[in-house]
Amino acid sequence: MQTANFTLKFEYKGQPHILEVRIAESSFKTVYKVDIAEQEITFEPDEEGYVRAVASHPLHDHAKQIDVELLHHVAELIISHINK
Predict the structure, then answer these.
(1) Is there a contact between 29 and 44 (Cβ–Cβ < 8 Å)?
(2) What is the pTM of this model?
(3) Are the C-beta atoms of residues 40 and 32 closer than 8 Å to each other?
(4) Helix or strand or coil: residue 2?
(5) Which of 11, 22, 74, 77 has the fewest CB atoms below 10 angstroms from its CB?
(6) Residue 22 · residue 6 · CB < 8 Å
(7) In this structure, are residues 72 and 52 in contact, taking their beta carbons and an 8 Å threshold?
(8) What number of CA atoms fall less than 13 Å from residue 31's CA on the CB side?
(9) Please, which residues have CB within 8 angstroms of residue 15's CB and are 6 or more apart in sequence?
(10) Average pLDDT, whole number, for the chain?
(11) Is the pLDDT of residue 1 over 60?
(12) For the chain, domain boundaries
């Protein structure tokens, strides 16, 4: 299990991204916090072994739109990283 923060470096739709993933642990689960489009997104494990993205504020109320496919891609990268 990963216990240290890590960095994701990737290209998405022709744009390079470097995202710092902050790990937060509680007694019940580990979550992964990432800042995307000026908003903190928390990726938390679900019952099927995937992670779901939870925004710090409602996405429709935010000035900068977040690409949902980008969230899926980041979730896949987090899963890949923690399963190493």
Answers:
(1) yes
(2) 0.85
(3) no
(4) coil
(5) 11
(6) no
(7) no
(8) 15
(9) none
(10) 87
(11) no
(12) 6-82
Structure tokens at 30: 């580990």
In degrees, to the nearest 5, what angle opens at C-alpha 75 toward C-alphas 40 and 69? 85
Neighbours of 35 (CB within 10 A): 13
The identity of residue 49, as a single letter, is: G
d(CA 73, CA 80): 11
pLDDT at 65 > cutoff 80: no
CA dihedral 61, 32, 46, 83 (to 10 degrees): 140
First to last CA, the chain: 9
Tokens (6 digits) for 27 = 């007694």
How far is 45 from 61, CA to CA, in rounded Å? 25
Share of the chain above pLDDT 90, in %: 51
